[in-house]
């Protein structure tokens, strides 16, 4: 399948240019320009010589690629397996999908009709192998006239096509033409060894043979889909396009029921769901939600989507709804304890996971976090925050902290100006956040040495030497309690005079 | 109309009676309903946190166990720092798992609280939020009453105005208790808590409590106003050699 933006039939000739090796080159041309013989690859000066009134603009490859990606996403309504084919083509694996649309011919006709309505110039080829389909689309099909080839007839069907349709490099095509080989059919009868010998490089020969074999189905060409196919999907075509959010919600309700029934039959649940709403004007809105553990409860899945269902704009109407389930896995179907006394733990994991799912659906992935304690004396390293995924961290079995620890830890130690006894007395007065605080009582120091096995001197990146920290528990005259530390000792020969920081606050 | 008809029409509903909250300290804090703790001055958030954790240890009741949900509005977390798990361990003898959510906006934080109450999956919700109007607190109070999940709101010093919460406490740190082993060192934490509003004990509104946290028995005691001052003689100015202090090595 191949597509390109089109203009009205009577538009002035217009081309998009890009800079090639020898100046500007035509990259794409509209219908009028094509009729004048201006084809992609022509030098821009030649093109202007043929059509002096030629209009031109610079091609935006990035935007084109983005547009093609969006179109590929929309193609999910025909098949879950869509892939990009070069800069201007899309490859759809429609095996087993055509019966949903009434056969291959009917499906291609419907696809063509929708693309035309959305304003895409396109050529469609359909064949048993990706190579053959690509060759048909690029060489045999015309606008509005799709080329269909029944499975198993690739050899005959491709015989009359030019060799350039086989996705060969320009050099290979030129070389083949020099030998008088212009049609694909001419390649069939030539001995492979003889064919390979005519090429200068082995790579080019291999590539030519590979493309030929792929087109004929002798070698398998794997499709690299943009999205891995979902484990399960449910679709709801709407003969009368939906124009309201309530309608979308109702459609989602039906789809979740169908999908969950499918999952229940297999005894599975899914951790990720994607909901696509295809609009009649050729756009698609998609929502995705994730669950912390495999689920298949329709009400729960609907609740995850509900908060964001408003972001689907029905526009001129939605004519197809699609719900996909990904990352399926077996459900843990352990029985719920009859009473709290019999439960293995205090927490209800299922309810907690459901709550986390809803929060994540609303606030974004990774918004619910848990902490796994680490075996480290350095306060910065004692905690490890990570997204919650059903498993609650085990209770901390490390022995009690060596000293009192603050109830609040600042995200980064904050520098303070301190008046303290040298070399290792507690502070007498310090300025933190521009407020002078007079120390009334102090306890310390508690020395925490750097972990030599982690930070071999000098510390990578900063080039500084790791220094021991002396922590003091400080109370100021107003009752505020702080955890200050002096970063380094005066006589450790590891840099300038040590500085003071606030690490945390006591209750 | 007999009782069966009333029940069928939904006018009368069978409901298990909840134990009434006794009008004694801490007035149902951590046990049921929504309670607000507000700073007295900017920077009293550690005292608030300590008071909430202490009240949790004190009011720990048998009928609810399970995880804590800790919600911190993003900006507040940067200002006052985060609450490490070691703090929870220091204030409680039991291990309690904790989930932390850091929503960016107040509306998201309130939504999260309400959602967590409705799920009944957690035993306690502690939320640090910048503000909440009467409607928001009313919603939370109704939800909390219906599902029986207690909520503590930690709010900044600017918190004023009406609320539908069970109570509003205003907390300030006090100089700590004298340290028996080292008069120059801070002792047990003390806080000054004013019960600004209370639905359980309206007659006690404005009453203040001086509280002391004992980190060995994990209990909160009310200290008399007299003892709240500096009982030990003030620390003599230090003139001795600095090595008089024992240095504990770690790491």
Structural description of this entry:
The complex is a heterodimer of chains A (507) and B (251). With 507 residues, chain A is α+β, with helices and mostly antiparallel strands. Chain A has 13 helices and 21 strands. In chain A, strands 16-17-18-19-20-21 form a six-stranded antiparallel beta barrel. In chain A, strands 10-13-11-12 form a four-stranded antiparallel beta sheet, sandwiched between helices. Chain B is of the alpha/beta class. Helix content of chain B is 24%, strand content 22%. In chain B, strands 3-2-4-5-1-6-7-8-9 form a nine-stranded mixed beta sheet, with helices on both faces. In chain B, helix 6 links the parallel strand 4 and strand 5. The longest helix of chain B has 14 residues. Chain B is globular, with a radius of gyration of 21 Å. Chain B starts with a helix and ends with a strand. Chains A and B meet through helix 13, strand 14, strand 16, strand 18 and strand 19 of A and helix 2, helix 3, helix 4, strand 3 and helix 5 of B.
